[in-house]
Write a structure and sequence with these properties.
Elements lengths: L9 H6 L4 H8 L25 E6 L5 E7 L1 H4 L5 H15 L58 H17 L3 E4 L16 H11 L8 E5 L8 H8 L5 E5 L5 H6 L2 E5 H11 L10 H29 L1
Parallel strand pairs: 1-3, 3-6, 4-5, 4-6
Antiparallel strand pairs: 1-2
Helix pairs in contact: 4-5, 6-7
């Protein structure tokens, strides 16, 4: 089958024959992250990957306040379907209870005596009526309570976060707000009303196709959402409120819309851009190398100074 070129030259693509490198990259489970791999989401308008994304910051009245730059290394990366699947499977496996249990022949009630003699009856020989081959007997090799959790490299988890955030931003389903704290109602004694909060959220999401929404702030005691947001939205079944520290890839993909405060988006971007533990230099080793380099520079400076004095 001829390989289709990215520049749209179909006539040349029909005449071209696939090379072994093309076939290898097309069938690989881990294609290169150039935005053109078979497991990378393609958009009608190709994004300029890794460039900072300018997001309009709104207030709770859906009025634009300012423009904030979101790091392209977090909110504008190629969306890898395979990475998202691996991370979601990892999270769901961690959350699975694993309380499945069947009884074996020793745990089923009854069957303590031999049903009939070994010989003389003409029947097949049996030692218990709770054998796995009997109706009502124990299960052989049945499920036991266990943990389904498995390991996943931290780098893959970080890639999953970046892919999920980039997907929501590319689809226009991510909204950045200055603050999610609703305004207390003066008519009701300064209390936060659920109906008013719902109207504000729907006003923010008027151009976003959604059924559920994920609201992300800096925490239950933060000024950009906090207790007022949770009190005004706890009766809305289509709203989920989480601080950015507890947001997972599964939560981002599960909800149709993502509303983040500017502080939460900045904090999450800073966390995702930190060097991984196995990539970061060890403090002791770095301190030792710094001392060695300083001693080397001092010695080199003394040698140069002595050489200049000797020439003078």
């Amino acid at each position: 089958m001829p390989a289709i070129r990215q520049d749209g030259d179909l006539s040349a693509a029909r005449m071209a024959s696939p090379t072994p490198a093309m076939l290898k990259s097309a069938s690989s489970a881990f294609p290169p992250t150039t935005g053109t791999g078979p497991l990378t989401v393609q958009y009608p308008v190709q994004p300029s990957y890794f460039q900072d994304r300018e997001a309009v910051v709104f207030d709770m009245g859906a009025q634009p306040v300012r423009v904030q730059a979101l790091p392209g290394r977090v909110f504008n990366v190629p969306v890898r379907i395979d990475i998202l699947k691996r991370v979601v499977r990892y999270l769901r496996a961690q959350w699975q209870q694993g309380t499945h249990k069947t009884k074996n022949r020793a745990e089923v009630r009854g069957g303590g005596r031999k049903p009939w003699p070994q010989k003389g009856t003409g029947n097949a020989r049996h030692g218990s009526i709770r054998s796995p081959i009997w109706v009502g007997g124990g299960a052989a090799h049945g499920p036991k309570p266990r943990s389904h959790a498995h390991s996943l490299p931290l780098s893959i988890q970080v890639m999953g976060y970046k892919s999920a955030l980039s997907a929501r931003a590319n689809e226009g389903r991510m909204i950045v707000v200055d603050s999610l704290a609703p305004e207390p109602s003066a008519q009701h004694g300064g209390k936060v009303k659920t109906k008013a909060t719902e109207q504000q959220l729907k006003r923010l999401l008027h151009s976003v196709p959604y059924k559920t929404a994920l609201l992300v702030d800096s925490g239950p005691y933060a000024a950009d959402g906090g207790e007022l947001l949770r009190r005004g939205s706890r009766n809305l079944p289509w709203v989920t409120i989480l601080p950015w520290q507890k947001v997972t890839v599964y939560h981002i993909l599960k909800h149709g819309a993502l509303i983040m405060t500017a502080d939460a988006a900045a904090a999450m971007a800073a966390k995702l851009q930190e060097p991984l533990p196995h990539h970061a230099a060890r403090p002791r080793r770095m301190a030792w190398w710094s001392e060695q380099q300083k001693a080397y520079r001092d010695a080199l400076t003394e040698l140069v100074a002595a050489q200049q004095q000797g020439q003078a």
